[in-house]
Design goal:
- By secondary structure, the protein is mainly alpha-helical.
- It has 11 helices and 4 strands; from the N terminus they run E-H-H-H-E-H-H-H-H-H-H-H-E-E-H.
- A two-stranded antiparallel sheet has the order 1-2. Strands 3-4 form a two-stranded antiparallel sheet.
- The protein is flat, with a radius of gyration of 22 Å.
């Protein structure tokens, strides 16, 4: 997954009631993050860049897919003050995600009326078509549908010539990025209340059994998800995260609720030692 939460530290107030050691840690963290932004974006107009970085909030915890790299580029454009490229880029990202979702998943819905309307096209510039189909198929979450429709209105006003864009460029770019950020967090996020996650698990997210065959989950989440039991362990090396687990938990199966309990209540001494992948 991909995320960046540095903006949370930057916008955290150094409260006078904080203990001195806590205050010192927070101040040092703020300085380290500011220094990292100087290295990343350059020192010129750094206060404005820091303000922009905080304004667009965190990069959401998201499963890795085609959107991560493009969202990072849009984010960078906004931070350095390239507001029109950021605005156009965020709107183009919305259209790209809708096209990806429809083209990747429509084959699962060949028996529906919506399929007959979309199966011949290779792309869709009228957002209403993919939004309506993806909503009807139960792929887009209801809040994501709302965000897409709001971004669609902003896109029409911003991409097609409209002289008023000059007067609201930063605000429109910020609004478009926040819509896009929310869509990614809702639809592709890993720490959300999306219906495909088992609720209440501590520190990790697990896919519900009934959603393992859901076209969206099957296409975008399962390829990134290891299949584990409740005693699995992880470590990190140069190649990334590695997962370790028991070879066999025995006969039978758990419901989602039973699995969550087994995982949440597991004895730390019983967790698999990281020796066999």
């Amino acid at each position: 997954m991909d995320f960046d939460t540095r903006s949370i530290i930057l916008r955290t107030e150094v409260d006078g009631h904080l203990e001195e050691n806590v205050k010192e840690v927070l101040l040092n963290s703020k300085k380290d993050i500011r220094d990292s932004l100087v290295r990343e974006y350059g020192e010129y107009a750094i206060e404005e860049k820091v303000g922009n970085f905080v304004a667009i909030d965190t990069k959401p915890f998201s499963t890795l897919a085609y959107h991560n790299q493009f969202f990072d580029q849009v984010r960078r454009a906004f931070v350095i003050g390239a507001y029109y490229p950021a605005l156009v880029g965020a709107c183009a990202m919305g259209e790209r995600i809708l096209n990806h979702l429809l083209l990747d998943l429509r084959g699962f819905y060949k028996q529906t009326p919506e399929y007959r309307r979309v199966f011949k096209k290779d792309s869709f510039d009228d957002w209403r078509v993919p939004i309506n189909a993806l909503e009807t198929w139960g792929i887009l979450l209801p809040k994501a549908v709302i965000e897409f429709r709001q971004l669609m209105s902003l896109r029409h006003r911003s991409i097609h010539f409209n002289a008023s864009t000059y007067n609201s460029l930063r605000d429109d770019a910020l609004s478009a990025i926040l819509h896009m950020r929310t869509i990614i967090e809702l639809q592709f996020g890993t720490f959300t209340d999306a219906p495909w996650f088992i609720p209440g698990t501590k520190g990790h997210c697990f896919i519900k059994k009934e959603y393992e065959t859901h076209p969206f989950v099957k296409t975008y989440f399962l390829p990134k998800c290891p299949f584990v039991g409740p005693l699995f362990a992880m470590d990190f090396n140069v190649g990334g995260w590695r997962f370790f687990d028991m070879e066999n938990y025995g006969a039978g199966s758990w419901t989602d609720e039973e699995f969550a309990k087994q995982y949440n209540d597991r004895d730390p001494e019983m967790v698999v030692k990281p020796t066999v992948i």
